[in-house]
Design goal:
The chain is an all-alpha fold. It has one domain. It contains five helices and no strands.
Length: 114
């Protein structure tokens, strides 16, 4: 997997747009996801979004990720809405998300080199 740092803001924008506009139904089970868990989930969502896969397979991966973490798309949207009101924390989360993606990328490159 080749993650381009220049494309990172583009995928952040796309993911945010998808999350905000694709949530047609709301449930009463809305929660704010903890920072540490959200960083992991958000990083994985960005990686899934960047992978060269069919839309159906990407949707399946996203669904599996949410099921594993016992969250919904509404929870993700609610968390993004919450951090949009706290710009300093949102910037911190985005930075840590970028670092996490780079960490996985470096790990993947190291494994490939072996």
């Amino acid at each position: 997997m080749n993650i381009k740092v220049k494309s990172f803001p583009y995928f952040l924008f796309i993911l945010m747009m998808v999350l905000f506009y694709s949530l047609a139904c709301r449930t009463t089970h809305e929660k704010i996801i903890g920072k540490k868990q959200f960083i992991e989930i958000y990083a994985r969502l960005l990686i899934i979004d960047e992978m060269d896969l069919t839309v159906e397979y990407k949707d399946r991966l996203r669904t599996e990720l949410m099921q594993q973490n016992k969250i919904t798309r509404v929870d993700i949207e609610k968390t993004i809405d919450y951090y949009n009101t706290k710009p300093e924390e949102w910037i911190e989360i985005l930075g840590k998300t970028r670092d996490r993606i780079e960490q996985w990328r470096t790990s993947k490159l190291t494994q490939t080199a072996r």
